[in-house]
Amino acid sequence: MAYSQKLMEIFRNPKNVGELPDANAVGRVGNASCGDILELYLKIENNIIVDAKFRTFGCASAIASSSVATEIIKGKTVEEALALTNDDIVKELDGLPAQKIHCSVLASEAIALAIQNYREGTDGASQEEKMV
Amino acid sequence: MNVYLDHSATTYVDEDVLEAMMPYFHDHFGNASSQHTLGQEAMNAVDRAREAVAKAINARPSEIYFTSGGTESDNWAIKGIAHAYASKGKHIITSAVEHHAVLHTCEQLTKEGYEVTYVPVHPSGEVDLDALKAAIRPDTVLITVMYANNEIGTIQPIEEIGRIAKEHKIFFHTDAVQAMGVCDIDVKAQNIDLLSMSAHKFYGPKGVGVLYIRNGVKPDKLIIGGAQERSMRGGTYNTPGIVGCAAALTKAVAHREENNAKIAALRDYFVEQVKARIPYIVINGGFEHRLPNNANISFLYVEGESILLSLDLEGIQASSGSACSSGSLDPSHVLLATGLPVENAHGSIRFSFGKDNTKEQVDYTLEVLERTIARLREWSPLYADLKKSKEN
Fold first, then answer.
1. What is the ipTM of this complex?
2. Fewer beta carbons under 10 A from the terminal one: N or C of chain A?
3. A interface test, pick of B299, B346, B368, B387 with most A CB neighbours within 10 Å
4. 3-state DSSP helix/strand/coil percent for chain B, to nearest 5?
């Protein structure tokens, strides 16, 4: 199975590439020896993901999956973002070849990790605010 | 602009070759095994093709067997020798950088009780001859080492391996698929017992190849059927393919030196320019003994398939040793065998040049490549890490 036209279009012009300077939730998954790494940056305000960006080292499907994931979760609540599955990402890409499914899994894992880091760090961040 | 830089994958059928093949599809369609005039016309064409192929490698026509391609030839040579001479021993020596047609055939034989030694290579990609000699055992029946590597272009020390094999009375097979029409091959001088080739790598048609088998060497048959190929390989003669194979090889050998010089000059220019214009790259494989058409480069901090597809979107066709483009999750066994770290192997691209590439095409490729690598690096967390570590 080849890549869908939609996937190639997203790969050609991915959305939300780059770093978010004021991100308060960051998740990095994958490793270089496996051939893909996704770093996801989220800005969460009042339980809403107000902005999302990513950097990805990987193949076209990893980059397109990252782009689609950031598009979907923007404006969503943290719970809604956590409910996003890799199947949702695959659907949004008009399908993925079987050996590329792990790229969509990588994106959903990055969301979960970023939110986990955010939740673990939330208390610390609010503590700081209180001290100010 | 359209730039084809994947000649090691396949080449188009040369116009002269196509012209030579055409009569055998329609007007002279006879089965070369038929006794009537139409059949004999076809057989005459097959005989002439056999003579031409033999001449190109200093073999006798009776030593040339037409097959369906490189993979069949490799399968036949390796399984054929292993099975026919099993009573002499069941040990095979090969290299760590062979094509899958050889590696997977050897793996299959290990399931049948054979033992296989995979000789390591130097960082240049050249087989470690000391390790090869050390691997020889009393029960070694076959050494199979490729003539030139398909990924990094390394030309192996075939003459030395031939000499070692002869000294130890071991059969020597070489997969010469990438070397035909490029290297000066003489099966007698180089002590080659069996040699595989594939027509579509030298501007011939797909689906036809050759196995050279030295007279007196008797591998078991692979394809059982009629009495074709002196009862060694069944199957109706692929007359247009066989004619095309011979015409392509004859033309490639006739223009070998001028093509090699032209292609090497383009390749060298490309590599020098990439080195000058793109930071953080690794040129894979040595340059001392290398096919003139091959450049294999790892672009660090980016992944090969995304480079490949970005180039393709701008009309440039190359090839990647990345896991992501091969369908498996393992990066190139060849690059790993040369000692390249696995993370660098993911970002490798093979550019293989051909006789019709131009400097304009190379300049265009360089411009697109420079832009593509910069863009993908901007997207890469590994490159961001690098930049941050430099700032600190």
1. 0.89
2. C
3. B346
4. 45, 15, 40
